[in-house]
Amino acid sequence: MTYLGGPYYLWWLDNLADDVTGDGAAFQSPAQGAEAVRAIVLAARELYKHQEFSFIGDYDDRFLEEYTCQIPANQPAPSLSSPATPPRRLSRSWSTTGRAARYYSSLAQWARSSPALLLLKSSSP
Amino acid sequence: MSVKNDALAQDGTPRYLASGDPALANYYPAWLDNLADDVTIEGSMLDGAAQGAEAAQAIVVGIRTVYGDSQEFHFVGPIGDDGWLEDYIAGVSGKPIGCINLVTRNAAGQTQHIVASYRPRSSVLLFAHLLGEKFAGTPLAKYFISEGDTA
């Protein structure tokens, strides 16, 4: 996980509100609660390969990250990481429907045995 | 389709169901009028990136046609040295969709890159399908529909 060639850390992941919500193209409905959001973010990062941030910055009371990554085909479902586990590798591309569909599928495969399933997969991708 | 902003988050209500900022009701995306010749456009609803002012203009017009008059902005503003951010909601065939759109300008001040991130997933897939239908028979169709895709 790099930004401008140097390491980058998801600082906001360490300061989630108890009732934080997480949402995105891979979600069918928002995840709510620090534990759920953290688990999904960490699971997503396990799918990622070669995540590179091209932009990070504040706007108003928000914080924006723009990044690219790869999602390998036939990626096994990620394990449920402990929040204390340092980031190992990342990936994600929200910008393409085909890759996003594979991402949905992989995340849903992981979510099959967790409460996050309903948030990520309401129908087959 | 929309709910009041003050109802948000208390029960996990998605932000794409929150009504827009009335102060932005008359917002016009001026970046549309100043596209670089080699502008690129990409987003959750398409594979790859379409390049060129004509293609980008056609896609944006197609998107706005799908939205109809349902688009409502939560936030617009500059970000970084050359970025412009839009946070808005809209309706796609009656389904709600939210978008974070990052527009980047080149040194000449022209719109160089348009990157749109949509949610939720069912609306994204429907959106891609509708745009694929809209651009069927044109060179732009390949960005939206791949073999095996379903809405």
Summarize the SSE layout with pairings:
The complex is a heterodimer of chains A (125) and B (151).
Chain A: E1 2-3, E2 6-7, E3 21-22, E4 31-32, H1 34-47, E5 49-59, E6 62-70, H2 97-111, H3 117-120
Parallel strand pairs in A: 1-5
Antiparallel strand pairs in A: 1-2, 3-4, 5-6
Chain B: E1 35-43, E2 50-51, H1 53-67, E3 72-79, E4 83-92, E5 95-105, E6 111-119, H2 121-134
Parallel strand pairs in B: 1-6
Antiparallel strand pairs in B: 1-2, 3-4, 4-5, 5-6
Helix pairs in contact in B: 1-2
Question: Could you list some keywords that capture this structure?
Answer:
heterodimer; A: 125 residues; alpha+beta; four-stranded mixed beta sheet; two-stranded antiparallel ribbon; 3 helices; globular; B: 151 residues; six-stranded mixed beta sheet; 2 helices; 6 strands; 19% helix
Q: How would you sum up this structure in a few lines?
A:
The complex is a heterodimer of chains A (125) and B (151). Chain A is of the alpha+beta class and 125 residues long. Chain A contains three helices and six strands; from the N terminus they run E-E-E-E-H-E-E-H-H.
Description of the structure:
The complex is a heterodimer of chains A (125) and B (151). Chain A has three helices and six strands. With 125 residues, chain A is α+β, with helices and mostly antiparallel strands. Chain A has a four-stranded mixed β-sheet with strand order 2-1-5-6, with helices on one face. In chain A, strands 3-4 form a two-stranded antiparallel ribbon. In chain A, strand 3 and strand 4 form a beta hairpin. In chain A, helix 1 packs across helix 2. The C terminus of chain A is likely disordered. In chain B, strands 2-1-6-5-4-3 form a six-stranded mixed β-sheet. Chain B is α+β, with helices and mostly antiparallel strands and 151 residues long. The mean pLDDT of chain B is 89. In chain B, helix 1 packs across helix 2. Chain B has two helices and six strands. At the A-B interface, strand 5, strand 6 and helix 2 of A face strand 3, strand 5, strand 6 and helix 2 of B.
